[in-house]
## 1
Amino acid sequence: MPTSPIPFCSVTLIACLFATTLVAGDTISTPDDAVAQVNRFIADGWTQHEIQPAGKCNDLEFVRRVHLDLVGRVPTQTEVENFVADGRDDKRSALVDVLLASEDHVQHFADVFDTLLMGRTEERKYSRRVDTGWRAYLETVFRDDRAWNEVAAEILLARPNDQDRKGSVWFLYERKDNHQAIAEAVAPAFFGVRIECAQCHDHMSADEIEQAHYWGLVAFFNRGKNTDSKRGPAIAESAIGGFSDFADIHGSSSPNLLKFLGAETVDEPRPAADAKQEDSDELYLASTVDGAPRIPKFSRRERFVEEVLNDHPNLARAMVNRLWAIVMGRGIVHPYDEMDSTHLPSHPELLDWLAKDFAENGYAIRRMVRMMVLSEAYQLQSLRPQGVDDPASFAWYLERPLTGEQLARSIQLVARGSFQNDAGLVGQFRQQIGDVLPDETVVGVDDALFYSNGSGLAEYLAASNEDQHLIHRVCEMSSNADRVDALFQAAYCRSPDDDEREAVVSFLEERSDSLPVALTHVLWSLITAAEFQFNH
């Protein structure tokens, strides 16, 4: 059996980066047909490389996995029991549809995309994102299943006419007029490429990424300036300025034209080097929105949205690759935000087809996620098949650590039967566990110390002692064996095996005079174990 990774695509560089070629089976009439198409692409890779994938996951594995991926928490015991008892052949797709339509899905994906688009930050800045409407804006995106291309355009144009979408300006505003930081955020967030390596020279390994692309992207945004308007935070834009040269490491200078990877250069007359530009009202459109900043007749941001962002092939490719990474553990291109010639797709035809399907079906995120989680690859067991080493084969479900928000929600739900997205525990965990979609899984010493020495989790569990909370309910049971079963089912969605049951029962019997405390210790040990902290 071959042990080498699935070979990357062998087509030309430009075709790999900006593919629009149609592939077999382009016409899709139903959602089930779309899932079948994904299955065919993945199965073709297994066949080509003589890979026997892992077996299909059981219902208990699936119900926990899909709840964590779609709604950001473990399922309740009632949700588990109802799913297992459901005798319908299509119960998995029915569950996926329910979860995708839920408010929990809205909150979870808002958490994920807040981090992917804005990065982790201190708690006071999370509060600021709420106060300025950014968080509400993200929630609306996923609640209304809005088209991603329209959302991207709103965020980068940053001129909302609707007060309900005022939070869209915060992507640019929070970066405080740091136009290089804006460019370095725009490229991976919307095009799936990292360009910071091209600040001082053309990219050292990805030849298609030029220094001119870095400074060209900066130029598209360098006339913007944060302002506090009557309508709240806004991004004003000047009609003049922003002309400069950039120098490479050899000292050669070039003008920073309005240029970006994979798009035609936007033409803009440049004043003579010794000419002084004068700002005047004649350079701006008449204001149509009360209290909004005036708009230049030649708007660099607007030209970027209309001539670069709109219909850019990487807009769809980057998003479907990111969604694949969210639910499958890694992108078809890995890392998911380095879609360049040095990180080619493991399944190029699949990526091409997903991007085309996404664009042709209105850039609908929910439809795309549904397709992915109902695929055969998603529903595999997490046990790696013998002799299969390459995770890019997607021949088994890739285990991955939960985000801070997933952990905080799940702990609340297990311990107290309900959760709050703004609970203090959420802030503690997202400050400690910063990664979302890490390139590799590393459990650091600081994480271990957070659980063993930190007071937050221990204090939360100790305070979870009301009648409706798990520890109190378990204390009321008649035997330690029943108590152990209840704790395992709440935390792991499974019953303990014989050895686990025997060990925990023995632990409880030795501490029968302080049973609530002993049960709290058991719950802490279950929550801090890898089985709880990973999706698998």
## 2
Amino acid sequence: MEKISTNKGLLDRFLNAIEKAGNKLPDPAVLFLGLMLLTWLFSTLLAPIDFGEFDPRTGEKLFIQNLLTGERLADFLSRMISIFINFPPLGVVLLAMLGVGVAEYSGYINAGLKYLLSFTPQALLTPILILVAIVSHTAADAGYVLVIPLGGIIFYAAGRHPLAGIAATFAGVSGGFSANFIPSAIDPLLQSFTQSAAQIIDPSITLNPLNNIIFTGISSIVVIGVGWYLTDKIIEPRLNRTNPVDKDLSDIPKMEDLKPIEKRAFKIASSVMLLGLIGLFFWASPVDSSLRSENGEITSFAAPLMRSIVPLIFLIFWIPGIIFGFISTSYKSSTDVIASMSKSMGSMAHYIVMAFFCALFIDAFAQSNIGAMTALKGAAFLQSLQLPSQVTVVGIIFLSAFVNLLVGSASAKWALISPVFVPMLMQLGISPDLTQAAYRIGDSVSNIITPLLPYFPLVVIFCQKYVKKTGIGTLVSIMLPYSIYLLVIWTAFLLIYWSLGIPLGLQSTYEYPAM
């Protein structure tokens, strides 16, 4: 017992130090502004240097772009509005929150949680939440704006620390981004870059879009197990000791028993939602459905259905929320509905400010080529070491995790470094399927500790709903154990999986040429 208490004390001191240091950073909006200015400065200092790297996407020599020239500054000013308005997470968050806000303030979500908690054993609450978070990957980024805040509400309603619920779902949505047993749009997207890179060595090679689906499916069990243990045994106990929930939580729905009229309203509203989902299924089922892409695919980014996920989420929550509100009498008129939506947007005010500066920084960082140069230099260094195959695969995972701290988009990173990694490992006898699986691990595990993730500030906002003092350092200290455990355990799992020869996915191989 004394040893366990000592270990907890050491862990608390370590994570508390990270939290304290991180919270001394300025407000995230100011932080992003400072990072943008630093990017401008370093782009000016590094622009004259010839690093000798070629951009695999264009075949041309890659240079750091000086962002402080008159031409670049004029371009920046002329694009500032479009940079902000077209910032991908902004529209996703605001539209989804409009629908979720109606469902929340009408009491519909609250009623659903009461039903969920009535038949879900307390002991299984954490793994079920992480499972739902993993499945949410199928709906692109919807998990960030839907599942993560629900994790906090569900834990709070169950008498547990809400930040632990947010942490568990954040770990499932983002830390386990590449763990899913359901195909999603990210599968064919990554495969397309992997295949193009592999054709540098073998122009005739073709890869199945689901070449990692078995591995990512079984990886779901790994992510759930790691997240379950950490949440219940390490994260939540520490939060109870160091970050107690604020007493003033008047905005959080209370969880009294449902009244008869609320039960009736919930059943009717949920029936309407179910009918809508069934109608959507039959609309999307035919091969020539207008919700599919021109070649009949439904999971590709070209399919209208995939581009409509967030508007559909809005409708799925907005319509039942309104129905529940009027039947349960929590809404008396349409004015109440609009008031709910306005209140929901009011809670997003801080995020909108952060999104403005975050969008400007991410655009500047991409325009400067600093992230691209870092990725290529890291890949070149890894190649120069000429390590054994297993060590090289581990190196790719760790390098991908590091680059992920600087370049957030999974597809953008893979488009950049796959032409280096995939041919390099093919020449070592490692298949493109295995290289892609290794990359997907590294791309996932560091999402949850980088403030440069576009949704990271949003998760901070969700946490502040329960613990107002929450800052960047708080969230990083909460998520760091997940990141470290997932990196080590998931990497070891891939090596064991590889040694057992279990297929990675459809028509996948471990060796090149295939044997």
